[in-house]
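User: quick one
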Amino acid sequence: MPRMHASVLEWPKCAAVAVQIIHTVFSEALSRTPFHDHLCRVVDGLADGSTSCGSIASVPALTCAAAGGDMVKAAPLVAAWELVRLAAKQLDDIQDRDESTSADAINTAIALVFAAQLAIARLSQRKWSARFQQVSIALSRAVVRSAAGQHADLMASRRNVERADPDAWLEIALAKSGELVAWAAWAGALVGGANERMVLRYREYGRRLGVLLQLADDFSDTWYLKERSDIATSRLSLATCYAWSVTNEQVRVRLQTLFEQANKGDKMAESQARQLMIDLGAQAFLLVTARLQQRHAMAALRRARCINEVLPSLVALLNQMFPALSFDKEVADAKTIREHGCAHQQSACLSSHDDHRWPEPHYMVGCPSLAASLSPRSVNLLLPT
Amino acid sequence: MNELARIVHDQVAGRAVTRTNLVSSLSIEERAALDDLAYLLQRTPLELAAYLAQAQPAVDWFTPPSRSVQLRD
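Assistant: Done. Structure below.
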């Protein structure tokens, strides 16, 4: 018999059931108190239809469908995932708030995490009760590991950002964001019917997607946040880890001074620190790191043997994290042939020469105008072969 | 990742990066990521910054991509 698969068109139905579960969980735990209404307002995002399929919210539904399951089966997971993300967001934002609102956020976050467990308990009322305990334990572990990552992040920021290097940043990002998204992707695939080996591949996809999320966050918070950027608040970011790990003592002292001045509200110093990190190549490094994570995630997807109809949505989710990575090399190669009458082999630099300067002998040789002429294109990246 | 950082920094600083250095320092995946992005890494840091300003990562834990990913080409 051909394997049944769920279409991504089922997402609105899945999201609606998830919203219903969330409201039932709140109602069963609380009477119509002001706190009940407060929690309902906090979760309004999923209900108002603004959360599209292909957003982070849909990860458990997408992996469930990709594994051959019915998306609606994953509704309790989507509900739990929404609640956990909201809790994480509340806690993460505390750093930017005053004390009175922080107390409220902590209280709300605690309620949301336990409500997530109640949402998962809905699985026990269905045919998939055998999965319930497994999914519930895994979520608790993911939250504990994420908290450990957050703890390491806070400790590193308090000690001195300069002590952390890119490897340390990656370890923190894998724990802080990777573990939670890994749970969402893994649990969806499990409920969708994937076997033990396959669910681990979806888990790896989620882990890498979580790191991409953290990367995008670091990028925006370093260069585009007008108020309380990572520079002004001395928070740990990959950009600063990079800058400190590659530069010399003289530049390090200069950066340190700019960071201290930015921390005291000096906008000029903040702007100079941003520029100095750009000059050091921090943006280039973040892009390469993002591409690396994207490759890992796509390799995991390839091995997971997803349902074809769902694969583009999972790949699109990766691409949307870093729009700058979504350029079409085939189009660029075609443009090269058209404009310069030659197609340069991009693998040449690693395979044809024993020892040469990189990347000069690359496919750009003789085509100086190509790099400047490329424009960002929002197209799917091809799966690596 | 630490070695990858050093390689990227060397390249941005205009220092030669040899194949021997690449192969001994980086994983296959790291080399492939560098290779994938050679189009972008050819640009100077300032050109790259201008390009990235047009394609900012705007997705966070709660921003639906449909609303946030708007390339301003």
